[in-house]
Amino acid sequence: MAIGFILGGAVSKLVSSIVTDLINPIIGLLLGKVGNLASATLNIGSVSLRWGSFVSALIDFLIVAAVVYFGFKALKLDQLDKPKQ
User: Fold this and answer.
1) Distance between CA 70 and CA 82 in Å, rounded?
2) CA distances from 72 to 9, 17, 57, 84 (A)
3) Residues 57-79, buried b or exposed e (16+ Cβ, 10 A)?
4) Which of 34, 37, 48, 66 has a CB 3.0–4.6 Å from the CB of 27, allowing a cystine?
């Protein structure tokens, strides 16, 4: 189980780097004037909502969740509790 935690931390760092260094700048370019998605804000009066940072964290979460889900399915760990027929 300890190996799973170590690998999970490494995968999380890798995905975070991919989102920060590759995906965010590409989405930022597609949005036009924003150079990086994480720096995108919505200013309402004196309040600055950093919606880009939230979207960046959401993309990061979705990629990690997909890796865990498909890894779980590929290793057939979802069938361990089912009785064999």
Assistant:
1) 19
2) 16, 23, 22, 19
3) eebbeebbeeeeeeeeeeeeeee
4) 37
User: Who's near 37: CB < 8 A, 6+ residues apart?
Assistant: 23, 24, 25, 27, 28, 31, 52, 55, 56
Please report, for the chain, the start and end positions of each structural domain, with discontinuous segments joined by +.
2-76
Q: What is the pLDDT along the chain (85 residues), one digit of tens a residue?
A: 666 777 777 888 888 888 888 888 888 777 776 567 777 788 999 988 888 888 888 888 888 888 888 887 888 776 766 766 6
Residue the block writes with tokens 């975070």? 16
- What are 42's two structure tokens? 């919505």
The model's pTM is: 0.66
Structure tokens, 30? 């597609």
